[in-house]
Write a structure and sequence with these properties.
alpha+beta, Glutaredoxin, two-stranded antiparallel ribbon, 6 helices, about 45% helix, Membrane or secreted protein
């Protein structure tokens, strides 16, 4: 019996684990869709679109200095890890009038990583409210037209998040105030959605070659 147990531990269990994780992306690796067909950023800024991009969307508000620490957290924990992916982009929405503060911010961010995919869109207050409300979350903008959470928008304009989060049940966004949340939750979710699209691309390429 001891020999059988040793054989199971050495050979059978690793095989079972391999099969489990090999199928994990198909069975467990899709990030839930929480809101379908959110408003495209192109409706308020013709220079950008959510289509065919994996977008991290944020709402900076009109007090850029107050949220600077949040954006540095996001830069260090998310942006630096993923900005080299071709279909990855950051879009931060801010009210018209804070352009100077954002230029200074981008210069500071650029000292830590190439900041070319940090995109800031300056629009009217009502456009910010409409875009945020279109996400259909349980969150709200503050008096400065900002929110510390950032959101994952997929290539088909759907808001992705968690529908079984251990802390919030339904998790629409990721709080940039919390380094732990960015590190332990958001990083994993961005990895999942990137892997999801890579697998879909591989499958499409394989189907075409048949």
């Amino acid at each position: 019996m001891k020999k059988v147990f040793v054989l199971v531990v050495l050979f059978i269990l690793p095989l079972v684990a391999y099969l489990f994780f090999a199928s994990g992306v198909n069975n467990f690796g899709r990030l839930p869709v929480l809101t379908e067909k959110v408003s495209d950023i192109s409706t308020i800024s013709k220079n950008y679109t959510f289509e065919d991009k994996i977008t991290i969307l944020g709402f900076v508000g009109n007090d850029v200095n107050r949220v600077k620490g949040n954006l540095f957290n996001l830069n260090q924990k998310i942006y630096k890890r993923f900005h080299e992916f071709n279909d990855f982009q950051m879009i931060m929405v801010a009210p018209i009038g804070v352009e100077k503060e954002v230029v200074d911010l981008k210069e500071e961010l650029g000292q830590l990583a190439d900041a070319k995919k940090w995109n800031f869109v300056f629009v009217k207050p009502e456009e910010i409210k409409n875009l945020f409300d279109g996400l259909k979350t349980d969150l709200s903008l503050d008096k400065n037209l900002g929110n510390p959470n950032v959101f994952i928008i997929d290539k088909k304009l759907s808001l992705r998040g968690r529908d079984d989060d251990e802390d919030e049940k339904v998790k629409y966004g990721f709080n940039t105030i919390s380094v732990a949340e960015l590190n332990n939750k958001m990083e994993d979710d961005v990895k999942i959605i990137l892997a999801e699209y890579r697998l879909a691309l591989k499958k499409n390429n394989a189907d075409r070659s048949k």
